[in-house]
Amino acid sequence: MSVFESFKRRLIRITLIVPMLLPYNFSIAEPIKKPFKRVLVMSGGGLNPGSFLGMIHGGLEMGWKPDLIITSCGSSLGSVLYNSDNSISDSFKVLQSHEVYSGFSSVQVNNAWVWDLLTVFDRAANRREIPNVFSDLILTVPQYFPIKLKNDKFLADENSTKILFVGSKSLFNKNDIGKTRSVIEPLFKVVYFTDSSTAKLLDGYKIQPHHAFPYSNVVADVDVKSDFSTLDAYRASIADPFLLEPFEKDGEFYFTGAVDLYPIKLAQDLGEEVIATYPQQLYTKYEVAAIEGGFAFSQNVRALEAIQNENISWIDVYGLDALSFNPQVSGLQMVTAVPIKESDFRWKAFLQWDFGRNRIKEALNAPKYSSAHLRRPISKKLYKDFSCKNAFTWKTPENEFCESDTSPGCNRNSAVYCIPLR
């Protein structure tokens, strides 16, 4: 074969192959642009109206303005106040107002005795029947929060911080209570409350299936509501099943944002830079019982799952419970922790605000994605091994309190009880 014939054949091959390669782009793909640059995730933290408003204010003081705030449960009132005024000084004045004090003072404890609480949680443990989450609950909270706002509509203009509340709704009603159900029958659906422009971004959005709870009570499909006021979305988002009654609107019953208390996946789908509140500790057996009874998953495992995420800047909220207005068990009774005097309420709300303001500044000053500033980090190992190997404190037959395997009688292998925090 001549050199000319060989070259001719190679040219024909190249001519045939090149069109096949044209559809392929061999350049490094540009990252997909997300609709928001900065996303602040404020997970529930009980009755702490000031701390989460303080986080927003602290970020603004540092020049860090969130484009989107995702909030749920007790953290969401701070977002309501900021959405109303978009001003540090004005929203702080509302936090200190008589209306906010009156709203929290109206919270009543119904099942005050410890044995009443146990009865409620025994009811929550029954997964054979449609649960009663409408009556005989632990707390009573007004359906409508008695507060006057400049604006209670979600802001949709380009320059405003967008707000998204995580909530849920029941797929059953009061007439279904007590009916026998299948353990794989879904009972709840996630609901996002937000403005109309953000709602369009979430059209067809589904929650990520949870491999650890294949038979949870929550369906994958999501409802998005843009016709709620921010106060109504707040009231819906705090309604933990078995703890307080749901928010009712147009014949539907709306429940807590604890259905997805750490919406990190949602935040990362929507935003390029995510900063979120870190779980301050694992949940008590009573909190776990309420969520398991309603949604059929463990809140502790969900929290441990959240901290596995990479590329997250964490806000340390450890110690926040000491400032909260959460009902507390005192002796054999549960009592409200809202101060009787309005001046004491305002002072404690200020302490909450100052706490949140300082903690977000701490997080923003820390190296990006660092956990070195966390006061009590939870071991990621617990997600796969929820045992005393990763315990923070434990006790053995020889020693009532152990923090180190080197202490006398503190070998973890003989632990009879442990608190696996880190």
Question: How would you characterize this protein structure?
Answer:
About 5% of the residues have low confidence. Strands 1, 2, 5, 6, 7, 8, 9, 10 and 11 form a 9-stranded mixed beta sheet that branches. The chain has 2 domains: 344 residues; 36 residues, no CATH class. It starts with a helix and ends with a strand. Helix content is 32%, strand content 17%. It is α/β, with parallel strands linked by helices and 422 residues long. Helix 2 links the parallel strand 1 and strand 2.
Please tag this protein with its features.
422 residues; alpha/beta; 9-stranded mixed sheet; two-stranded antiparallel ribbon; 32% helix; 17% strand
Task: Summarize it.
With 422 residues, the protein is of the alpha/beta class. Helices cover 32% and strands 17% of the residues. The termini are far apart.
What number of structural domains do the residues give?
Answer: 2
Q: Give the terminus-to-terminus CA distance.
A: 75 Å
Poorly predicted parts: 10-30
Helix content: 25-40%
The value of Rg in angstroms is 25 Å
Q: What is the tally of helical segments?
A: 12
Query: Which structural class is indicated by helix and strand composition?
Result: alpha/beta
- Give the overall pLDDT as a whole number: 83
Overall shape: globular
